[in-house]
Amino acid sequence: MSIEFDTSAECAARLDDADPLRDFRSRFEIPTDSEGKTKIYLVGNSLGALPSLVRHNVAVELDRWARYGVEGHFTGDLAWEPYHELLTEPMAAIVGAKAEEVVVMNSLTVNLHLLMISFYRPTPKRHKVIIEDHAFPSDHFAVESQIRQRGFDPAESLVTLEPSDGAETLDRSDILSAIADAGDELAMVLLPGVQYYTGQVLPMEAITRAAHAVGAVAGFDLAHAAGNIPLRLHHWDVDFASWCTYKYLNGGPGGVGGAFVHSRHVGDQTLPKLLGWWGTRKDTRFEMGTEFEPIPTVESWQLSNAPILAMAALRASLDIVTEAGGMDSLRSKNELQVTYLDFLLDAELGSQISSITPADMDERGAQFALSIVADGVDGREVYHRLGEAGVACDWRYPNVIRVAPVPLYNTFRDIYDFVHILKGLVT
Ligand SMILES: *Cc1c(COP(=O)(O)O)cnc(C)c1O
Question: Does the beta carbon of 138 lie inside 6 Å of ligand 1?
Answer without folding.
Answer: yes
